[in-house]
């Protein structure tokens, strides 16, 4: 499996709008086993995204999906920056639908 | 919802043993919507855990479950240290069973 953990900072006041875009279509990405969007309670503009894919290839393929490309294009202007993150190799757990 | 992201370092050579303990019973924790254990591909001793609970109370209650307390007691000697982490407020996603 292929995992991603990342923090991004929305443009001021734009977190809700950004989160709404990030959550569009999360159930329709082939190979996506887990995709969680979360607020950072200490930073009103910060968003955490944790992802698990059945393979790195599935994740890369998702970035070519028309709906995902369109969502990224709409999201980018709402993103002020990217923070810490990690690429991981999930080995098991709960909620890996 | 209540989210946790954390990195821990296993004692040298003990990651597999630690991961096996961490994965025990992950399907039997009331209120746990997602619990993913992952290797850090850049550090042979490092483990990432990402969790989503329906509430902070459910997470705290899980730490009192006999099986979880026993697993923590067995895991602690295998943990060399704790790294970066974050507490989050998940707002949606996929795989939140």
UniProtKB/TrEMBL annotation, chains A, B:
The keyword Nuclease does not apply. GO terms for molecular function: monooxygenase activity. Residues 2-89 form the ABM domain. PROSITE patterns: ABM. The lineage of its organism: Bacteria, Pseudomonadati, Pseudomonadota, Gammaproteobacteria, Lysobacterales. InterPro entries: ABM_dom, Dimeric_a/b-barrel. Gene3D superfamilies: 3.30.70.100. Keywords: Monooxygenase, Oxidoreductase. This is Antibiotic biosynthesis monooxygenase. It comes from the Bacteria. It holds the Pfam family ABM.
């Amino acid at each position: 499996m292929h995992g991603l953990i990342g923090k991004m900072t929305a443009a001021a006041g734009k977190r809700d709008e950004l989160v709404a875009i990030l959550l569009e279509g999360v159930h329709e990405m082939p190979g996506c086993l887990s995709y969680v969007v979360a607020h950072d309670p200490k930073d009103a503009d910060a968003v955490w995204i944790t992802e698990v894919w059945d393979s790195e290839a599935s994740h890369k393929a998702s970035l070519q999906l028309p709906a995902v490309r369109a969502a990224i294009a709409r999201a980018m202007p709402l993103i002020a920056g990217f923070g810490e993150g990690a690429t991981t190799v999930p080995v098991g757990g709960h909620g890996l639908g």
